[in-house]
Specification:
Distance between the termini of chain A: 29 Å
Order of helices and strands of chain B: EEEHHH
Helix content of chain A: 25-40%
Strand order of the largest sheet of chain A: 7-6-5-4-3-2-1-8-9
Strand content of chain B: 5-15%
Oligomer: heterodimer
Number of strands of chain B: 3
Helix content of chain B: 25-40%
Largest sheet of chain B: 3 strands, antiparallel
Number of strands of chain A: 9
Number of domains of chain B: 1
CATH topology of chain B: Arc Repressor Mutant, subunit A
Largest sheet of chain A: 9 strands, mixed
Strand content of chain A: 5-15%
Structural class of chain A: alpha/beta
Chain lengths: 375, 98
Amino acid sequence: MSAPLLPPIGMLAELTHRCPLQCPYCSNPLELLKANRELDTLTWLDLFSQAADLGVLQVHLSGGEPTLRRDLEQLIAGLSARGVYTNLITAGVNIAEGRIEAFAEAGLDHLQLSFQGARQETTDRIGNRKGSHQRKLETARRARAAGLPLTINAPIHRHNIEEVPEFIDLALSLGAERLEIANVQYAGWALANRNALMPERAAVDRQADIVAAAQEQLAGIINIDFVTPDYFATYPKPCMGGWARDAFMVAPDGTVLPCHAAQTIPSLRFERFGERTLAEIWSDSPAFNAFRGTEWMQEPCRSCERREVDWGGCRCQAMAIAGNAAATDPACIKSPIHKHMAILTDAALAEAAPEGAESFIFRRIGAATRPDNRA
Amino acid sequence: MTGLRERAIVSLRSTPSLPKHVRIQYDPVRQAFAVLSPEKVFWPNEISLDILRRCDGRSTVDHIIADLAADYDADREAVAADVIAFLQEWSDKLLVKL
């Protein structure tokens, strides 16, 4: 690796894998950790302090459902004391009275609330929990009342892609500053449920037009971020802004990872906070250095003029579809197996059950076996 | 509810401020000022910082322009055009409140 090592800017802390919802596209690994594997309060606080020393400016508190951690207020206060910008990523279905206010008081900077659908029946069906939509609406109102800035996150797939205009109205009506229309990334549980989730190309195209028009029309009113669907893309995304380039994540047991799905790459071994300091892991971990910069790249990435634009795309998608983590992300038109993406989407649609009769593998401990996705 | 919110347009009488989800902070690791916002970190240049620091919710855009023109010993009209364009762009991204 020739480029100088820069300090990380962002960190995603998965405080727990416990969650009241069972979304079939969850980005957590298929092997979920139970509560007894979670780091304790003092270890998280030590980790956050080391992260701040290392240069981390933003921490996203996620899960599972991070509000299931009873020490969340304390963790937010610890980050806030170090001047770190804190973002709480929550499903917002079961937050006890007074806690949102307590998070705000502890110094929380921003709250991101997921909606599985813009309609009650969609939210309740996808998260596999009745009444969750109503509770989310209530959480949004409480967050606004506590003075917290709000992002609405809408993970998009076949069963809610037609609700995109309603998601925009919902975010506006809740007073959100920001809306993420985020097409599901097919890793983790979404990969296991790919056939049940994959949208049609026509719907993807319609969605892109709707979002582009809304972004223009609502400039200065609400920020709409659009995460495009990889399987219909021409070029890959700069996944995580480049492997171990300026962000990383930590699993509930303290395993430090370059991204959500990194553990699906069998050749890599990841280190746990406590065995080594965060600074040592960031700079020296062989897994972090494996795909840093551009030296590891094969052709066509190696000589590509976009190699420092998208950094070769997603290593885990290369692993899942090309069977080689160092291959070009198959989302890229220059990948020798790019056409396989269209074959996979066609196959998903051919196998799709009629609406309402589909069988998701809902996210819960022990529910999933690994599918074979290779080309 | 939707109709309650409209795109804000910069005028000389606007009194810009930073919204609650945006803050300027000195980063000792990189020895530079960062603007922190949800999901994004910006590294503004000196001039942008000088504008943002004056967004205190009390100073008018007119006053900010006069102040900067004096500080930089620059032509007021040129400064005005730059400041107004900058604030409109940042307002459109909801990074500045007018």
